[in-house]
Amino acid sequence: MSDPIQHIGADQAVPAEPDGKKASHPKHAKLRPRREWEKAVAETIDARAELQAATAAHRRAEIAEGNALADFMSLCKPPSQLDVTRAHLARSQAERAKRAEAGLDPDARAVPVVNRSKIDQHALARGKAAARSGVPLLSNVVRR
């Protein structure tokens, strides 16, 4: 007569080795790691869907902002070339009239001041006698 089959494990579902030794490890699956993995995969899918929705909402907001800025800029139209020319002519005619009322030549222009450094201003403030003394005080800005 043969020996009865020996089983191992809590539910006695896995038969033992034929010589009576136990198996190297239980042969039933552990469900906890699989459930945790499935939960993590579901969370990742949900997070990816939220990210895509947020990215799409951000893009829509950028487009709406651009449209609002374009609408605002259309309300603030720059002056035309004709308006700029008319304003310049009116300003120059007013200046000519002011000079003519003061008894000056209406077409006279002020001499522009160019490259006036601190050294140049000091040298001009010294007067003609100091300039004839032979000590040059002008900067190299004038010589350029």
How do the helices and strands line up, and which of them pair or pack?
Elements: E1 7-8, E2 14-15, H1 31-75, H2 81-101, H3 118-126, H4 128-131, H5 140-143
Antiparallel strand pairs: 1-2
Descriptive labels:
144 residues, elongated, two-stranded antiparallel sheet, single chain, 2 strands, mainly alpha, 5 helices
Kindly describe this structure.
This protein has 144 residues and is mostly helical. The chain has a two-stranded antiparallel sheet with strand order 1-2. The protein is elongated. Among the domains are: 46 residues; 29 residues. The protein contains five helices and two strands. The relative contact order is 0.04. Helices cover 58% and strands 3% of the residues.
Low-confidence stretches: none
Strand content: under 5%
Lateral strand order in the biggest sheet: 1-2
Number of strands: 2
Number of helices: 5
Radius of gyration: 47 Å
Q: Could you say which overall geometry the principal axes of the C-alpha atoms support?
A: elongated
The main sheet comes to: 2 strands, antiparallel
Helix/strand class? mainly alpha
Give the SSE order as H and E letters: EEHHHHH
Summarize the model shown:
This protein is mainly α. The chain contains five helices and two strands.
